[in-house]
Fold this protein.
Amino acid sequence: MTTSLMVSGHLGHVIFKHLLERGFDIQAVFTNKGSDAIIDLAREKSLPLFVGNPRKGRATEFIQNIECDVLLSVNYLFIIEQDLIDLPRQYAINIHGSLLPKYRGRTPHVWAIINGETEAGITAHLIDKEVDNGDIVEQIKVPITPIDTGANILKKYEALYPGLAESVLNSVQNNTIKFTPQKKENAIYFGKRTPADGQIIWDWSKERIRNWVRAQAKPYPGAFTFFDEHKIIAHKAVFSDTGFNYEQKNGEILQLSDNSITVKTPNGALTLENLETNGLDRSTMKIGMILK
């Protein structure tokens, strides 16, 4: 059975290396320009390599001589169009970082934490022309604990992705693969996030703000708020017993310490910790002032 891989980033490199070590017959690799480890490994193994965005027929010439029974996509940066979906003789399969049909789209594990989910997971599914829409092949559930961050969840995923990829390919090779149609009426889609999307809204509940902060904590860019024109990035948020009057404005500073700020929200106080204050003179901050 021949396999072509569409992989990006550290996770893609982990999968690529694992499948080579397990003896799978990888015939070609697709990746992006920034995935140096994948590019280096493909060249080391003298494998046909396509680097860049394959959309709009850019990979037409490349795929002419590719032998492919299974096309496997993991952490790949680009939308896969019909010419590549049609490439394999058997199946085009993607591994997505959510329990489909929940959390289709980009950075699903981050959105799951933001929304207070207690469970995430990874799904192997058939690729079709709609994003994250095809029949489910296998799923693995991953608990989200109250202290997990986006980075923690990715570490959990990293330990599970290689085994899932191997299991899926083995099921194709052994002709034991099974398919479960997604319940499309239950589909939830969330879009791409950028660092600019991380601003805290102080009118949110303390629970949502806490999830917002931990989902984006280091090494991610972090959730942020503003004091005057100064951006303050927080990588941790904890509930506080600090009292306040309901009529005080949301975002009002209730307490200050060397590296924390306790702030009023609609339903309780919240302390921001592990701060990046970007040159802010902390002496200018006073209790009663407002973060925005």
